[in-house]
Every structure is written in structure tokens, then in C-alpha cells.
Design a protein that fits this description.
By secondary structure, the chain is α+β, with helices and mostly antiparallel strands. The strands form two sheets. It has a three-stranded mixed sheet with strand order 4-3-5, with no helix packed on it. A two-stranded antiparallel sheet has the order 1-2. It contains five helices and five strands. The structure holds zinc ion (ZN) (2 copies). One zinc ion binds next to loops.
């Protein structure tokens, strides 16, 4: 799912009403780079129409996350959205300097497997953040 039309078709099949605003939000999500705050999406959509408010942006982004079309991750005080195709990777966020390292999500495969086995829980680990201290801040 990597273009607006494919996503819209998918949402239609799932009985969602597609408004021009929703379409513009999806466009913004796909074209605006991998890590967008809701405010950044809002600003982008505002360049095309003023008939949108921030609440609609939040609602639509949440719906896209629920539908598996977008992911949401906390980058340390900043919640960002990405298209589902982004990643999988882990953001290692340093608590001290806010440095963000993109780490390979492969290390989480064993964790996901174990959570599935022990708890029957399907963890969504495609785009998550882990908080800690980076090598440069350690000493
Ligand atoms: Zn990312
Ligand atoms: Zn650091």
C-alpha cells in the first residue's frame, strides 16, 4: 500500500467514507517524509484547503493506524506518523541528547515470537521507539 489511490480503495472496501480531506491527509502522509507529526500533516493539508481542522487530522491519522495503513511512534515527546511501508526499524532515542538511531528491527523477531508463544499476543513492532542512553552520553 504505497499510493493514495490504493489506500483509498482499501478504505472504501472497508466501508469508510472518503472525503477530500481524508484523501489530502493520506497524500500528505505519503509525500511528506517518513516521520510526520500531526501538526506537520495539518500544515501540509492547509496549503491545499482551509476546510480542515486539527481534530480531523488526528482522527484520520488514528483511523489509518488502526487500519494498519500508518504507524505511530513516540520519538521522545514527539509523536510521529509514517506510512506502513516505512521500516521496519526501531528508533533508539537517547534520553540525554535526543539523538535518534535507526536500528534493525530484526532483533525484535525473537521478542515477537516469544510474546506470541507465551501470551498469544501479536506485537506490532514495525516502527517503535526504545528510550535509553546513547554511546556518546554514557560517560
Ligand atoms: Zn522511522
Ligand atoms: Zn545521547
Amino acid at each position: 500500500m504505497n499510493n493514495t489511490q490504493t489506500i483509498i480503495e482499501t478504505l472504501r472496501e472497508r466501508q469508510f467514507r472518503i472525503t477530500p480531506q481524508r484523501e489530502m491527509i493520506i497524500d500528505a502522509l505519503l509525500s511528506g517524509g517518513p516521520h510526520l507529526t500531526a501538526e506537520a500533516v495539518y500544515e501540509q493539508v492547509q496549503t491545499r484547503t482551509s476546510a480542515v481542522n486539527i481534530a480531523t487530522i488526528y482522527r484520520t491519522l488514528d483511523m489509518l493506524v488502526e487500519q494498519g495503513i500508518a504507524t505511530r511512534t513516540d520519538l521522545g515527546g514527539q509523536v510521529v506518523y509514517a506510512p506502513a511501508g516505512h521500516g521496519p526499524h526501531i528508533h533508539l532515542v537517547c534520553r540525554h541528547c535526543s539523538y535518534v538511531i535507526d536500528a534493525d528491527a530484526g532483533v525484535l523477531a525473537a521478542l515477537a515470537e516469544q510474546l506470541q508463544r507465551d501470551y498469544g499476543f501479536t506485537a506490532d513492532l514495525r516502527h517503535i521507539s526504545l528510550f535509553g542512553v546513547c554511546a556518546g552520553c554514557k560517560d
